[in-house]
Structure formats: C-alpha cells, structure tokens
UniProtKB/TrEMBL annotation:
The keyword RNA-binding does not apply. GO terms for molecular function: ribosomal large subunit binding. Keywords: Coiled coil, Cytoplasm, Protein biosynthesis. InterPro entries: Ribosome_recyc_fac, Ribosome_recyc_fac_dom, RRF_sf. Responsible for the release of ribosomes from messenger RNA at the termination of protein biosynthesis. May increase the efficiency of translation by recycling ribosomes from one round of translation to another. The gene is frr. PANTHER family: MITOCHONDRIAL RIBOSOME RECYCLING FACTOR PSEUDO 1, RIBOSOME RECYCLING FACTOR. One of its GO terms (cellular component) is cytosol. The lineage of its organism: Bacteria, Pseudomonadati, Pseudomonadota, Betaproteobacteria, Burkholderiales. One of its GO terms (biological process) is cytoplasmic translational termination. This is Ribosome-recycling factor.
Amino acid sequence: MSLSEVRKSAETRMGKSIETLKVNLSKIRTGRAHAGILDHVMVEYYGSPVPVSQVANVNLMDARTINVQVWEKNMAGPVEKAIRESDLGLNPISMGDSIRVPMPALTEERRRDLTKVVRTEGEDAKIAVRNLRRDSNDTLKKLVKDKEISEDDERRMQEEVQKLTDKHVAEIDKLVTQKEAEIMTV
C-alpha cells in the first residue's frame, strides 16, 4: 500500500463517517416538518415491508405539516397506521387517499434532551474519525517496519492524516452546532 493510498483511504472513510452523521442527525426530529423524517417508517405492502416513500408521495404542506399522498387508495390505512406506530410520536390524520401529518411542538425539556442526543451522535462520529486516524497510523508503522517507506515519509504522512482528522472533527462540530441551533429555535 502506497502513501497516497493510505491518505485516500483515510479521507474516504472519514468522509463516510460525516455522511453517516448527517443521516443520523436528519432523523432527529425538530419542531419543523421535513419530508425525510418518514424515510425510515416501514409499511406492509403485499407482504413485504417497504419505506413509506415507495407507496406514496411525501411532501410538505407548510412548515409544520407533512402531506402523504398514497398511490393506491387501499394503502391509506396501512400507511397511517405505520406512521402512528413509528417511534416518532406523530398523529396522522387521514383524508381519503391523502394523509396529513402535523408536527407537534417540542417542549423545552424535550429540546434539551434532543440536544444531548445530537452531542452524543457528534461524539460517536468523532470517535469513528479518530479510530480511522489510528488505523492509518498503524498502517504507516507497518509500512516502515516492512521497509516500504522511510521514517521521514511516515512522519510527514502522520501529519497529513492528523490534518485530515482535524478538518473532519471541525466539520462534525459545525454540523452538531447547526443541529443544536435548529432544535432550540422555537
């Protein structure tokens, strides 16, 4: 494995950690509605569980209401039931073949709890990035031991990996701060 491969691997894997953090943060509910909140809600469709987005159009009516327009009339009941029974604490209202999902306002205590969850997600992402740094440094030490690179190259590359780590940790902090601000706005 060459030095450029070590760097590229570390950068790619750290980028994936940030993408995972973004996905996890998008699942944390704020007071505002967004269509992605129903992405992980599964509904029974002809014997197999599928995401709501595969049996209906999910869009926003306004800042606090999601509209779910089912494609088949007979799916309105199962979709409504799936949303109600999800862990999101939502109470959908059926209106024929469309379902309105109003987003309840969050209490101050719940907002504080959610910011703790956001911080935990951020810390998990930082741990993942630091573990990737350690893996890269271990790979570099192995390359030096096998005499494939010099110690100077190893030191230079470790500094580069550290800079990558710092950059990704700063991005994680920024994402966490943005999400906390979004949650705390009333």
